[in-house]
Amino acid sequence: MKELNYLIVGLGLIGGSIAKGLTKTNHNVYAIDINKESINYAKDEKIILNTNESNEELIKNADIIILCLYPSMVFNWVNENKHLFKESVLLSDVTGVKKEIVTKIQNVLEKGEFLAMHPMAGREVSGVQYANENIFLGANLIIVPTEKNTSSSIEKIKYIGEILSFKNIEILSIDEHDKMISYLSQLPHAIAVALMCDRNNDHLIRYTGDSFRDLTRIAKINASLWSELFIANKEHLVLDIDSFIATLSKLKNNIDEENVEALKEMFSISKERRTNFDK
Amino acid sequence: MKELNYLIVGLGLIGGSIAKGLTKTNHNVYAIDINKESINYAKDEKIILNTNESNEELIKNADIIILCLYPSMVFNWVNENKHLFKESVLLSDVTGVKKEIVTKIQNVLEKGEFLAMHPMAGREVSGVQYANENIFLGANLIIVPTEKNTSSSIEKIKYIGEILSFKNIEILSIDEHDKMISYLSQLPHAIAVALMCDRNNDHLIRYTGDSFRDLTRIAKINASLWSELFIANKEHLVLDIDSFIATLSKLKNNIDEENVEALKEMFSISKERRTNFDK
């Protein structure tokens, strides 16, 4: 698939990192971004091909388009540009919540195919200047097909995942994906944010050990992106937060009642389950 | 202070690591443990000095005794052995919660002085075979004096902290220490445990990214030790869990009500505060 034209729409941290990985393996990579500086930077750094073609021409010539936009912009971009797409175009995205986007896009698409994916990778920074194809090393790529997708498109996305050196490439339904993301990614982010917002803690910095730092690393959150992601997945996330609060309250009651046996039981479950998660 | 006799009581991970650090810097280190195998291992590995003296003799000859026992055992050990102490002995401990232990011990002590310390370091393993003096590198040592302590004892404990390569050596009151530990260490551990106990999550292992792993690393908890620590500090910890739950509930309500501005405000506070914690 080296002869195909790849178009990255939205050249931030993830878009830039995908572009870098594809370019390094000799694929033809183009990009569109509302920020001209990001495009110029990427051309200068040879992250994307240097061309003077207009955005319209880039879209018309693209075989594979990867949408690396904020969740709220993905649908609109497709809807506004769909008349330009090649008949055979394959579109994909990197959005962290799939429910609304996937069905909506598949319903308006007249040409080509939209197959969602979610590269489970990121950093606490944003912008193409931080792009680094190594962020995918050892990470998971989730492909989220519906009944409208073809197996040949799934193979194409798998191929991209392999080029980018993802450790696991998995297939999940929209609901399975959004549920999994709520518990494994969004709930931890909500917890980290709540822990930092809980009190002014500047005076505690010099006493902080690794556990507090590990637990709150992800609290350095991109406010615009994550407010969109949390709200887009609120159906699962609100229930998960409630469930977590109930479990933490149970732990608290065991402490308050000095119920040593019940505490030890929770610690044993915790230790056993967490040991299974070791790489 | 190289001519002094150091006695480690309780040769587990922390006791063993302190012993190793002191021995490597040519101090005279002895140890007592109910587990004869731990003592033999430490003698074979030259972590402590090889001697045939009885425990009674070791206690009688000790200039500095460091209690590395479970919290519930510290007071009883001192009370049962205090008649053997040298007139000039300095006792210290490594217990994670100070309120009950410190005052109680200082009140029964007839000879010598008890000055509490808390090396804020650990691993998710226990036993002298995991002892490693490097666990203190970059960590905090909190010294917790009361009005009964002398400045010369504080200097002796600081000296030990320096030998063991702690990054910071800080002085806190009992209440300041226990409050700080509740928020910075115990609350994160309670959160990690609750997150793992929340549901059976074995089937999610292959989708897990770094954020979930980082947040739950400390969930591999020593059940006996931490149930003692949580209960010993319940006065602070129960309030801290309540406060955290209130903040997380506020975050949840903002998600549920799709209050983007309020969410962004929390994320901004979170990001700003967490950035201050970067080393």
Keywords, separated by commas or semicolons:
homodimer; 279 residues; alpha/beta; Rossmann fold; 6-phosphogluconate dehydrogenase C-terminal fold; five-stranded parallel sheet; three-stranded mixed sheet; 51% helix; elongated
Return the string of H and E elements of chain A: EHEHHEHEHEEEHEHHHHH
Number of strands of chain A: 8
**CATH third-tier fold name of the largest domain in chain A:** Rossmann fold
Q: What's the gyration radius of chain A in Å?
A: 21 Å
What class, by secondary structure content of chain A?
Answer: alpha/beta
Beta-strand content estimate of chain A: 5-15%
- Largest interface by Cβ-Cβ < 8 Å: A-B, 83 and 83 residues
State the low-pLDDT regions of chain A, or none: none
Helix residue percentage of chain A: 40-55%
Give the CATH level 1 class of the largest domain in chain A.
Alpha Beta
Oligomer: homodimer
Strand order, biggest sheet of chain A?
2-1-3-4-5
